[in-house]
Write a structure and sequence with these properties.
The complex is a heterodimer.
Chain A lengths: L12 H17 L3 E8 L4 E4 L10 H19 L7 E6 L2 E7 L5 E7 L4 H19 L1
Antiparallel strand pairs in A: 1-2, 1-5, 3-4, 4-5
Chain B lengths: L1 E8 L6 H8 L8 E3 L10 E3 L3 E8 L2 E7 L7 H8 L4 E7 L5 H11 L1 H6 L1 E7 L6 H14 L7 E4 L4 H26 L1
Parallel strand pairs in B: 1-5, 1-6, 6-7, 7-8
Antiparallel strand pairs in B: 2-3, 4-5
Helix pairs in contact in B: 3-5
Classes of the chains: A alpha+beta, B alpha/beta.
């Protein structure tokens, strides 16, 4: 499968299908997951887990894109090495953002209770998705 | 030391990131992402969080430069960044259709800064034979900020001297307004 340059990634059926499979797996393996999204680096939603949508559908993808970029900028500025993931934690849950391999995509997961297992699982799924999208 | 926070706003491709790179004395912090929708805009990358740079305008004046994302789907960053800002530079590309529409949209979205501090408009890629574009931009700025003149300059965002002149004009406007407000309050 190729990440094509002629069709925007968020409208490419092959990319959408692969990301949907990845999100299905994340959902199945992480019971406290509330919602997960795959998005392009510039904040376009590619796919998301089933469930109720809020009034401003694009906001989560945009915020995820911003957090991803800020996290990588901070890691760069502080010379922390390759950026891993960003976690924002509140009283009622956590949001995790991580890049999909070295591709211009990010994975967002919003969890009621984020555990180490969820972080590892998201990394594993993102790595496999990156391989699938570039193979 | 006086510190000013200045925002660079405007649509995608207007030259905000380039302007900050032209001005900044430090290495600019950029958050560029691959632009995945080339059909909508042919730019290779787009800002998704902010650009950040700094410049000293004298021994006692430091200016923090923030570039905001040009695309409206990142407007939550517009709200965050304008909370501390004292000045606004709206950049628009004269080669885009209806650049005055972007002036309208951004002066409206950043009215809080425009009213609190100073505002200036920079027009990039301006063809001096197209004075109608300049006239429309001036008229739009006057309609949105009717209580005082909004300076409009044709600039090349790649030219540090031009961008510095734009910035100095804005800082002078902010300081004049602050001094006048202080005098009115005494």
């Amino acid at each position: 499968m190729l990440v094509t340059e002629t069709i925007p990634a968020h409208r490419d059926p092959a990319v959408v299908a692969a990301t949907e499979r990845a999100l299905d797996e994340l959902s199945a393996r992480c019971p406290t997951l509330i919602v997960a999204l795959l998005l392009t680096d510039d904040g376009f939603e590619v796919s998301r887990t089933a469930g109720e949508r809020d009034g401003d559908d694009h906001r989560l993808a945009s915020m995820g894109s911003t957090l991803q970029a800020l996290g990588e900028a901070v890691a760069r500025e502080l010379r922390l090495g390759e950026a891993g993931h960003v976690v924002v934690t509140g009283a009622r849950g956590s949001m995790l953002v991580r890049r999909v391999g070295a591709l211009p995509f990010a994975l967002i997961g919003v969890f009621a209770a984020l555990r180490e297992h969820d972080i590892r699982t998201s990394q594993e799924i993102a790595t496999r998705l990156a391989a699938a999208l570039t193979s | 030391m006086a510190e000013h926070v200045i925002l660079f706003a405007g649509p995608m491709g207007a030259g905000k990131t380039t302007a900050i790179r032209s001005l900044s004395e430090i290495e600019v912090v950029s958050t560029e992402a691959v632009n995945s929708d080339q059909a909508a805009n042919a730019k290779a990358t787009t800002t998704v969080a902010l650009d950040y740079g700094e410049i000293s305008l004298g021994p006692d004046d430091k200016v923090r430069l923030y570039g905001v994302p040009g695309q409206a789907r990142f407007d939550f960053m517009w709200s965050i960044l304008q909370q501390r800002a004292m000045g606004l530079i709206v950049l628009v590309n004269a080669e885009e259709p209806e650049p005055e529409r972007h002036v309208f949209e951004h002066l409206t979205a950043f009215a809080e800064v425009a009213n609190r501090g100073g505002v200036i408009v920079g027009v990039t890629r301006f063809d001096r034979d197209r004075s109608d574009i300049g006239d429309r931009i001036v008229a739009t700025a006057r309609a949105i900020v009717p209580d005082r003149p909004t300076p409009v300059f044709a600039v090349d965002a790649r030219e540090p001297d031009q961008m510095r002149m734009l910035l100095m004009s804005l800082v002078a406007d902010i300081e004049t307004r602050a001094a006048m407000a202080a005098m009115a309050g005494t």
